[in-house]
Write a structure and sequence with these properties.
The structure holds two protein chains of two kinds.
Chain A (H helix, E strand, L loop, with lengths): L2 E12 L4 E12 L3 E5 L6 H8 L7 E6 L2 E2 L4 H7 E4 L11 H11 L8 H11 L12 H13 L5 E5 L7 H16 L3 E6 L10 E6 L2 E6 L1 H6 L4 E6 L3 H11 L4 E5 L2 E6 L6 H9 L7 E4 L4 H10 L1
Parallel strand pairs in A: 3-8, 3-9, 6-7, 7-8
Antiparallel strand pairs in A: 1-2, 1-4, 4-5, 9-10, 11-13, 11-14, 12-13
Helix pairs in contact in A: 3-5, 4-5
Chain B lengths: L3 E12 L2 E12 L3 E6 L5 H8 L7 E6 L2 E2 L4 H7 E5 L10 H11 L4 H15 L14 H12 L6 E5 L7 H16 L3 E5 L3 H4 L4 E6 L2 E6 L1 H7 L5 H10 L6
Parallel strand pairs in B: 3-8, 3-9, 6-7, 7-8
Antiparallel strand pairs in B: 1-2, 1-4, 4-5, 9-10
Helix pairs in contact in B: 3-4, 5-6
The chains are: A alpha/beta, B alpha/beta.
Chain lengths: ~300, ~250
């Protein structure tokens, strides 16, 4: 069987107004894949994760993990998956070692049995093994939570926003750890609001308002960007933005790091005319050159259409 | 010379034998967008709390909006605005009630509040939502409203602590339009963020490592100084050398 996770038209709504948190999502995740669910807060990522980890009942549709149904087979699923929730959920009053032992015991195993799986991560925690979990720093808590989610050697690992609010350095370290886990054959479903983490996944789903906007490899999603994209830079970014927005309704311009990205339908805009117009507008040493869309550009485009 | 609205000299905060902020010296000009970056645990929050008049420094000097961080903390609080992702607005109050509440706290008159709230609601396109609970607003709108409320009393400086965390990329950029606008109107913007592309939108930025400011300058200058392709790389190189394990 190829599919580690199969989701079929799953939905979740809340309250009297039936606010759709997850709106008929279907997708499948192959065994051994690192699959990213990418979207902002409120997109439905956590509700989806909670249904897949059997902690929340779907209102419609179905899903299975390793062929086991998330409603009927929830007991079996809980034994075979690992889940790291977005909110730190370990026992704050237990030490690092006690937390890990606790989770190992609950899953009928020992720290020693699967130590090879967590060794790289646990080594960094070892100097603090007698410290209470509540007293750890953010990055250390995250590492401990990952160890606890891994200690029973799950076949599928669910990581809900493991890098939110974490700085660049810890984020890089975390993704390196995921790469090593993937090499061990563990399927990983990971959610993140950071678009730049998309390229670290084998495949991704972009989601907003409970719906999937696109599913594919990051590269294929970038290739499918249907507009022309130019990178621009001028004397002042706000000034350049204003000028671009005043040029034509067919131009959509937005800041992107050190550049302004300018997108339009191929043929709608005469670039040399645009260049002349911007040049006359006090934009200093104007740069206007073709660029490649990133996943964030794709996301922005999909949100607008 | 430009007017300086934040000036610090050797500003230090110790907790017992732990030096959270270690002799930081920098200044921020009026109308500047200043990015205050650093890894988790580098000391950003502690430094920001001192600048907002919420925590007394151990040693060193600092003035914010012309007021001393030791003796004039109440004056500082009246002259700054503050918002973060964690605390911004009251969920259980309506949009209008929030505006009135914060206006009152900042001692605006009823008339001022009326004028300002109308203008703000029009600008943000929130006309149909004024009587809705803030709880029911999408996160992006909430953050835009929170920012507008934080500058309702036209403070000299607004402090933004990760204002755009988790916000979708379109709304994040609308938020930056608001920041640019505020800065163009002379409000100094002092902010922290984990998004390195947002660091590029700042006029200048500082990067804290282990309580010190290890780099300070415009994005272009920092990239040149560290011979780095982007700010992510600058940040990574500096923060990787941190001794503090958060």
């Amino acid at each position: 069987m190829m599919e580690a996770i199969k989701i079929d038209g799953i939905s979740k709504w809340y309250g009297k107004e039936k606010l759709m948190a997850v709106d008929h999502i279907s997708l499948s995740v192959n065994r051994g894949e690192v699959f990213g669910i990418i979207g902002p807060d409120g997109a439905g990522k956590t509700s989806l994760f909670r249904m897949l980890t059997t902690l929340l009942l779907p209102d419609e549709g179905s899903a299975s993990i390793d062929g086991m149904d998330v409603v009927k087979d929830y007991r079996k699923i809980r034994k075979s998956i690992g889940y790291m929730p977005g909110k730190f959920s370990l026992y704050q009053d237990l030490t690092v070692e006690e937390n890990l032992t606790f989770f190992a015991t609950v899953f009928n195993t020992t720290i020693q049995e699967n130590y090879y799986l967590i060794k790289d991560i646990y080594i960094q925690l070892e100097p603090f093994k007698d410290r209470r979990a509540g007293k750890l720093s953010g990055g250390m808590k995250q590492k401990l939570a990952l160890c606890c989610a891994l200690i029973h050697k799950p076949s599928v690992l669910f990581l809900d926003e493991p890098t939110t609010g974490v700085d660049t350095v810890s984020r890089k370290e975390f993704w390196d750890m995921l790469k090593r886990l993937k090499a061990q054959g563990i399927t990983i479903l990971v959610s993140t609001p950071y678009m730049d983490e998309a390229s670290l996944c084998d495949r991704i789903a972009l989601i907003q308002h409970g719906k999937i906007l696109a599913v594919d490899t990051p590269e294929a999603i970038r290739q499918a960007f249907p507009l022309a994209l130019y990178k621009a830079k001028g004397a002042s970014t706000p000034g350049l933005l204003n000028d671009l927005r005043g040029y034509s309704k067919d131009v959509y311009a937005y800041v992107f790091g050190e550049h302004v990205h300018v997108v339009f339908k191929e043929g709608d805009i005469n670039v040399s005319d645009l260049r002349t117009y911007l040049g006359a507008k006090n934009n200093g040493d104007l740069i206007l050159e073709p660029g490649n869309p990133t996943i964030e550009d794709c996301f922005i485009h999909l949100l607008r259409t | 010379m430009q007017e300086q609205v934040i000036i610090t000299e050797g500003l230090t905060k110790r907790f017992g034998d732990f030096t959270a902020v270690d002799k930081i010296t920098f200044s921020v000009e009026k109308g500047e967008i200043f990015g205050f970056l650093g890894a988790n645990g580098a000391g950003k929050t502690t430094a920001m709390r001192m600048l907002c008049g919420l925590s007394k420094p151990t040693s060193g000097k600092a003035s914010v909006a012309g007021f001393d961080v030791y003796r004039q903390t109440e004056k500082i609080k009246e002259n700054i605005g503050y918002m973060s992702q964690k605390f911004s607005l009251y969920d259980d109050l309506t949009v209008l009630e929030n505006i009135k509440f914060f206006g009152g706290i900042y001692k605006l008159t009823d008339k001022q509040i009326k004028i300002k709230s109308e203008e703000m609601i029009n600008r943000l396109g929130l006309k149909d939502q004024v009587n809705k609970l803030v709880r029911s607003l999408p996160l992006g709108w909430k953050q835009k409203l929170a920012f507008s409320v934080a500058i309702l009393h036209e403070p000299q400086i607004v402090f933004l602590d990760e204002p755009t965390g988790g916000v979708d990329p379109v709304t994040r950029r609308q938020f930056w339009d608001l920041i640019y606008n505020a800065a163009a109107n002379g409000i100094t913007v002092f902010l922290t963020t984990h998004y390195m592309d947002e660091a590029e939108y700042c006029n200048r930025l500082s990067i804290m490592v282990d309580g010190r400011i290890d780099a300070l300058g415009s994005p272009a200058v920092l990239k040149q100084q560290f011979k780095a392709a982007d700010l992510d790389e600058v940040f990574y190189r500096l923060a990787r050398g941190a001794k503090r394990n958060e």
